[in-house]
Structures are given as structure tokens and as C-alpha cells.
Write a structure and sequence with these properties.
3 helices, 25% strand
């Protein structure tokens, strides 16, 4: 596993971390490339992952939750 972030929950909440910046800290190799490609696909199709809590992001479309991503 790559080095994980050492930010507290309050620091993460203040910064609203972008998932693209956090994926390389948790994944490597093919899994990292796949995850980054998936996020790029979501953004290209107007599905914005937004920070929800410590190492988790939610994507909504038309007011409905369509995807949750958690890095642990």
C-alpha cells in the first residue's frame, strides 16, 4: 500500500479533498489506472464525485445517489 494521508477528519472536511488526489495514496498499478479512468469518465459525463466524509465520496445525478466510493 502507498503512503496514506495523515490529515485529521476536520482538516479533510475543510479541504474537501479531490478523489483524484487521494486515489494514488491508496491504490497502485492497474487498480489505480482503472479508478482514475472511472473518475475521468464520471466527470466527462457530468457526474461529480463530492467529498462526504473521511476517505469517501458520493456521486449524485438528478437528486439521486448513484455511486459511493470509499478508500480505506
Amino acid at each position: 500500500m502507498a503512503e496514506r494521508t495523515k490529515l485529521s477528519f476536520q482538516e479533510q472536511k475543510k479541504l474537501k479533498l479531490k478523489i483524484e488526489d487521494e486515489i494514488p495514496k491508496f491504490l497502485k498499478g492497474e487498480m489505480k489506472r482503472s479508478a482514475l479512468d472511472f473518475i475521468a469518465y464520471m466527470r466527462a459525463n457530468k457526474m461529480q464525485p463530492t467529498w462526504q466524509s473521511s476517505h469517501s465520496w458520493m456521486t449524485r445525478n438528478k437528486g439521486l445517489n448513484i455511486c459511493a466510493i470509499r478508500l480505506s
